[in-house]
């Protein structure tokens, strides 16, 4: 019953999205103004229905109702509850349902609370949101129905990919989706503003908190995903430039550019067409990323849910949504009047530079992701990896980071470099000292050296905007910017440290044997079997001592799941203030003469990674900075709204008095 | 003063269509490659190509290091990519010894290894190699198109890669390897 109910709610939500589109569009014409009143309530109900359908699917997974095909294929009754729930979005259909749920809820939320823009722009925005949603509803209902029944029902489900059975990963997709799909709001705002030609500071101020919210989730999602890949895949790397990672990075780059250009538009009424364009691009990147990943057109380690037949559907959807938005942009952007002007040395100009660099990196990443497709069409198979992505994006990232150190100190519209240059001596000196220090201490990799020397200077520079201010009375949004920029410096240092200081050992060790890795001495204490709810494992007991200190215990496992049968290695990490010891247990070595004879030697992979956790600490700081900025914006808006409401009440009172 | 600055030239109208044009290009390209049949097998790209120039230090105490010049000596040779930490490599050792007994000259490249570990490995499993180079960052391994250990290449007398064997050589594959080596003489 519940499956049918869920499906019915989904159809109803789709129908409401259709109504929202028609009513919203009609309301913009001369004769249909009366339709405007229903658009907001319809958007809210549509969001609630989509969310209810999603909850129904979660409940089916919790009960392990194997008469539903999706549950039978992706769940198992022996799985812990948290992974039953996570199984809901650990597959194609469920994640698409999560997608429309997030879109619906975001649209409903906007309809409920956003009152700053002219009503016509809001109607166009909500109609745009419905237009995009409608395509995804069609995709879900016609090509990937999550509630499809299976008759006869199997006794037991297939289980969930063991790699996904990890607490960190359980909540990684929803976080990422909130960001990914939350950007649809920016897309719809851009469409609404283009339709009504209302591109101005009000538009930017209204859009900014929504973009900020999505961006925070996206930042957290990427950070968590990177950490998950780092400790779960057991490769010790934190970013692989894999198509799926790029698919989440590209919307983030566009959204970051959008946040900065929106602040120019809000404060100075400049960069109008460009901001609208970025609004379209950010969500387009989400859709393109989804397409690249889900169609199976690019092979990826993340290929959990690939089906070439669906590729055509998503491509058509993409062509309609993005194509329509870009046609609208081409037709209307010319009529969006030019904004205010500014000079080369100004806050605006530095933000323009930031935007150009971010979009260039976006272009580099997109090109690298698509390049294998181009060459494959010509009959050559290539894979594009870090040797392309890392230096090419650094070419743009490094100048951007340099300007990041200066830009926040500049005044709007017009400034003189001489005014800020004395302050910049401190970060410059720190950078030079760091560069000399690390070069002398033997860091040879150029990329690492650049990162390691730039990061401390950037950290100092990011704090400079607070200089000379009362720290308690500095605006929250300023704190947000400072912390986000500081986070970037922290992450940069971690990235540089990974390349420069990591030491690695690969050995086949006997029980009782000791191995040195960096300052650590690691002893293989014992190998013992352990059992979990749906797996068994061999666990190594490692006794690790840092530079002769009191020993710490690490227990990496080689884990074998039985539903579905698969072996994964579970790494064990020990974090100190100055880095992380990373250990992985492999298979037992077999004797050379006969495969059946065990030798008592075990494959161990050990890494000492100084300062590497700073990468994710930095990511969290960036997100925290965004959160502070969001708080400050929302608080300002609420304050403004109460003031205006009080003013309205007073005016009404006065009018009544005068009338009397 | 800002009022005095001349008006910046406005972007011409066609530039506004540029994003759409790029997007259409993307959709078209992707649509074509969606329709093309896909094969997932990978052919060795380096077959028929000369070895890249490299010069590696000695990886073990008993054997000299290895450079590209050691191959272009007129006779075909086997190049084995291995490591002491690699379990299948230990399994492969007796097969390599058999190949050596039947007259195949073998050189090795040890990937990301430590001299002490490698010495122990060779003492235990035997040493069929004439030279062993140390590739500490997998640079040569990647340059010759090898993605794992063990792998074995047949290099002809001019230093050209003729055959790539992925994974350990099994005892039943010894005749195949010898035949490939013979083939490379021509």
Main attributes of the structure:
heterodimer; A: 660 residues; alpha+beta; 6-stranded antiparallel beta sheet; 4-stranded antiparallel beta sheet; 10 strands; B: 186 residues; alpha/beta; 5-stranded mixed beta sheet; two-stranded antiparallel sheet; 5 helices; elongated
Give a verbal description of the structure:
The complex is a heterodimer of chains A (660) and B (186). Chain A contains 20 helices and 10 strands. Chain A is of the alpha+beta class and 660 residues long. In chain A, helix 1 packs antiparallel against helix 2 (36-63) and helix 2 (36-63) runs antiparallel to helix 5. The termini of chain A are far apart. Residues 300-305 of chain A have low confidence and may be disordered. In chain B, the strands form 2 sheets. Chain B has a 5-stranded mixed β-sheet. Chain B has a two-stranded antiparallel ribbon with strand order 1-2. With 186 residues, chain B is of the alpha/beta class. In chain B, strand 3, helix 2 (87-101) and strand 4 (106-111) form a beta-alpha-beta unit. Classes of the chains: A alpha+beta (660), B alpha/beta (186). Chain A binds chain B through residues 273, 277, 280-281, 284, 288, 291, 295, 297, 299, 308, 311-312, 315, 318-319, 322-323, 326-327, 329-330, 333-334, 338, 341-343, 370, 373-374, 376-377, 381, 413-414, 504-508, 586-587, 589-593, 595, 603, and chain B through 2, 5, 8, 10, 13, 16-17, 19-20, 23-24, 26-27, 29-34, 36, 38, 40, 42, 83-85, 87, 90-91, 93-94, 112-114, 117, 124-125.
